[in-house]
Amino acid sequence: MNIVVCMKQVPDTTEVKIDPVTGTLIREGIPSIINPDDKGGLEAALALKDELGAKVTVLSMGPPQADLALREALAMGADEAVLLSDRAFGGADTWATSTTIAAALRKLGFDLIVCGRQAIDGDTAQVGPQIAEHLGLPHVSYVSELEATEGAVTVKRVFEDGYQRIKVKLPCLLTALKDMNKPRYMSVAGIFDAYKREVKVWGLADIEVDQDNIGLKGSPTRVKKSFTKGVKSAGKVYEVDAKEGARIIVEALKEKYVI
Amino acid sequence: MNISDYKGVMVFAEQRRGTVQKIAYELLGVGRRIADTLEEPLLALLVGHGLPDSAAAELIAQGADTVVVVDDPALEVYMTEPYAKAMTAAIERYKPGIVFTGATTIGRDLAPRVSARVRTGLTADCTGLEIEDGTRNLLMTRPAFGGNIMATIVCPEHRPQMSTVRPGVMRRLERDDSRKGSVEKLAVKIEAKDKNVEILEVVVEKAAKKNIEEANVLISGGRGLGNLDNFNKLQGVADELGGLVSASRAVVDAGWVGQDRQVGQTGKTVRPDVYFACGISGMIQHVAGMEDSDFIVAINKNSAAPIFEYADVGIVADINKVVPALVEELKAAKAAR
User: Fold this and answer.
1) Among A residues 68-97, those touching chain B with beta carbons less than 8 Å apart
2) Smallest Cα distance from B193 to chain A, Å
3) In chain A, how many domains are there?
4) By CA distance, what is A152's nearest residue in B?
5) Closest to A238 (Cβ–Cβ): which among B108, B204, B315?
C-alpha cells in the first residue's frame, strides 16, 4: 500500500507571546514543530506500515526550512519525503494550497492519503477535504481510529455527540486527530540516517498545475488586515458577600453575552 | 462568474436525528442582520429525510425568509458526499452571495468540500461578520495563531462568500411566530455512487465529548474548595453555562477528577471565552495554562491570591458560599429572559 502523509510545519502556537507594549506577535525564538494532528496521521500511517507493510511518503508545502519537519518524519520511519517549495506557491489560501498539494499527489500516486484534521496556526480544517475534492476522492475527517481491511480502511469518525464507524474503499483521504495515538520518537539511527537521505524539493516546474490556481493569485480569499486583540486591562476585585459576588459575576457575563 | 448574479444569504440549517441544531438559529441571527444590511433575502437550507414541517416553521420564526428543503432517504444520516451534492445544488439554484455554515464536526467537513467544488473561498471560525461599505463585500474576522492575532478576510472575486462560525459565537433572534416565510422543496438526485463510504455503525453518546480545550466556558476548581463534595458542586455552575469542569493540579493530585481535566503547565492549555478560577490561588504553573482565556472570573477568600492579577472580575469571598449563590443567580437570569 502506498500511503502519503501530508504534513505542515507550524510554529508552536502555545509558545507564541504578545509583546505587552506594542501588542504585536513575538515570532523570535518560537520553535517549529510538525503540526500535532499531522503527526498523529503520520504515526497511524507508520503503524499500518509496521502491521501490513506499506510505503510511507511524507509531503509538505512550505519554505525551504520545512525540510526539518520532513527529516523528523524520516527519522520516525517514513520512507520518502517531498517538499513543495516555490515562490509561486506563496501567499496561498486553503483553496490554492489544496490545489497545489493535489497536483503533487497526482504525480506521487497513492492508495491512501492521510492529513491532519487541522493545523494549529490556522485551525481551518479545510485543506484535507479540499484535496480530496480536487482529486475526486471520498474522504473521512475527524478520524480517531484506523484499521486496514482488504482494499479499504475502516475508521472511527468522531462527532460532538457520538461517532460513526465508516468503511471506505481505497483510494481515499482521511484527516486524523492527534488523540488517535501517541507518536513514536525518532530513533537514534533514524536521526543519523535522516540527514543522509534526500528530501526531494519540487517547484512549479515539477508539478502539473494551472498557474492561475495557485499562490496568492489563485486564492479566492485575501487577508485585508490583521491585528491583535489588544492588551488586557487590569480587572476589578470586589470584597463582598457571596450573594453580591454572584450578582456581580452574572452581570459581567451578561455584558459579555455569555448569558 | 458574474458576481452581481449572486444575491442573498444562505444558512446551512444543520440537523441531527431530525432536530435542528442551535447553531442554525445562531447563524440565522447573524444572517438576518447581514441580509437586512444588503436588503437581500435570508435562506435556510435544510437537508435531511422525513423532517417534520415544524422544523421549517421554526426556522422561519427565527429569521429565515425562505426555507429550502432537500429531502432524500440518503440524507437521513450525515454523509459527506450526498450532503455536499445537496448543498452544491442549492448554491447553483439560488446563487446566494453569502453562505454560513456552523463550525461543527459536520460543517467543518462539508463546507470545505463544497467550497472546493464551487471554486470559492471559505473562512473558518469567524467571530466577526460585517458588510463593507461601498464594496458590499463580506468582512470575515477570525482568530489565528492560536487566538494570538485576529485577521479580517475578504473574498472579493468569487461567490458565494463562505464562512463557518463556531457554536455560541453569534446571538439568535427573538423567535417570532408571526414572521412570514416560504418553504420550497429542492429535488436533488442522490445516486448510489454518491454514497461513496459505508457507514457501519452510528453511535450517539449521551453527553458531548468532553474536551476542556474545546469548551467555551470552563469552571475550574482548586484546593480552596476543601473537599470532593464541594468540587462536585461546580458542575451545577457548568450546567447553567453549558461549560465543563476543569481543575488545578492540586485537585487532580488529590484524585477528585481525572488528569484530562487538568489546566496548567503539566496539564492542558485552554483558551475558553470564560474561565472561572474557583478556590485557585493562581500559581504561575496554573496561570500558564489559562491566562489567554478571553474573560477570567476569580473567586478566592484570600485577597492576596495572585489569581486576582489575571482576573477580569475578582470576588474575595468563600467559594463554597459563592457557588450555590451563583447557581441561583444564573437560574434567575435565565428565567428572566
Assistant:
1) 93-95
2) 11
3) 1
4) B197
5) B315
Grid cell, residue A204, equals 512549479
The CATH superfamily holding the domain B212-336 is TPP-binding domain (3.40.50.1220)
B41: DSSP letter: -
* φ, ψ for residue A240, nearest 5 deg: -135, 175
Contact criterion met (CB < 8 Å) for A250 and B333? yes
Domain B3-194: CATH class, spelled out: alpha beta
Please tell me which residue of chain B has the smallest CA distance to A243.
Answer: B325
Give pLDDT tens digits for A157-210. 999 889 999 999 999 999 999 989 999 999 898 999 998 999 999 999 999 999
Q: What is the pLDDT of residues B298-337, one digit of tens each?
A: 999 999 999 998 999 999 999 999 999 999 999 999 888 7
ipTM of the complex model? 0.89
Residue ranges covered by each domain of chain B: 3-194, 212-336
> pLDDT digits over A92-120, tens only?
999 999 999 999 999 999 999 999 999 98
A252 phi/psi in degrees, rounded to 5: -65, -40
